[in-house]
């Protein structure tokens, strides 16, 4: 993909409700939603929230069009949007109220929070100019949280919109494309590629999350940009009817070369891979036309390698941001990734690599996948392992039972780890829990051990 020299003017978030009423914003269950529908939704929510005393609102939407309407309304009201989905009680201190379209979120579970369901609000017939200008220009989202609770990350609209500018310069004009995603709009990846990039380019997005090739097939014949993850691409079935995509974008983890080839066979395109993080935004990109293709930095990005840690200089952040990956620079524009460095925790004042423990367990024939997380038990930190067993491992569990199999795994680690760093708790699952970004989050893994001694 060559960088485009000219792109049409992008539309900032503050100007979205002033687009032509007939502009198509989104498609929901095959039905088009226009700027007029967005205006009506924003006005309805604005009327409900403008006089509320709460400032920090959790924005929890299942539908991406509802998400955009809720985000805009909160910003016009001068509220601070907190992007959280799914909701979890451990994150409750970050917000005072909840804006949602989900009937399952009720006062029974959240008695101390004001809950507003936008699907139950009345409509208001007033001119959109009545709500004035944006009174807030920032939001908070969360990292996925692989070794602990998700960490809040603050973003300004300027950062989000400048990121769209960089991506539009890379991809060229996108106004005729249809943005479809398997990932959530609540996280940085989905927010950037499904929401901000589509809106700024006056393109259309599909409201629903599209997880399966069969779902994607209904949009065949359109200029599809499919925004997805390595965990989905590696499970593609090339026997299913192919769907021609104009672009396939992958982020959220390493993509194996053979999985990239699946995309080429099923979608007619090799994925454009994106390297970045919630803290930094986009950093680099590559397309695996051959195995081990290096990453290329986006314009204005610079990586500085030191003995301790690699750091990023980027127009999307302030200062130098430490990176949680081992990076080997080829030149000032390209590099290779050599693995993660951030799954390091302290137990009994000792630095422990969760990745090292996972790698040791992954070598065993009984284990297909494993995640190790820290848990607090009686004022001390212990480790817990969530194991997806291989077919051989399932047979062993049937013969030995849960306890004896976990003791076997502990025995295998005793010559490689100290006693305090061998997992004390074990859960065996058919499949590791993952979110729409294809990641196993700390919250989802921790839930497997809740209320169990």
Automatic annotation (TrEMBL):
<dbReference type="InterPro" id="IPR045851">
    <property type="entry name" value="AMP-bd_C_sf"/>
</dbReference>
<dbReference type="InterPro" id="IPR042099">
    <property type="entry name" value="ANL_N_sf"/>
</dbReference>
<feature type="domain" description="AMP-binding enzyme C-terminal">
    <location>
        <begin position="357"/>
        <end position="439"/>
    </location>
</feature>
<protein>
    <submittedName>
        <fullName>AMP-binding protein</fullName>
    </submittedName>
</protein>
<dbReference type="Pfam" id="PF00501">
    <property type="entry name" value="AMP-binding"/>
</dbReference>
<feature type="domain" description="AMP-dependent synthetase/ligase">
    <location>
        <begin position="138"/>
        <end position="290"/>
    </location>
</feature>
<dbReference type="InterPro" id="IPR000873">
    <property type="entry name" value="AMP-dep_synth/lig_dom"/>
</dbReference>
<dbReference type="InterPro" id="IPR025110">
    <property type="entry name" value="AMP-bd_C"/>
</dbReference>
<dbReference type="Pfam" id="PF13193">
    <property type="entry name" value="AMP-binding_C"/>
</dbReference>
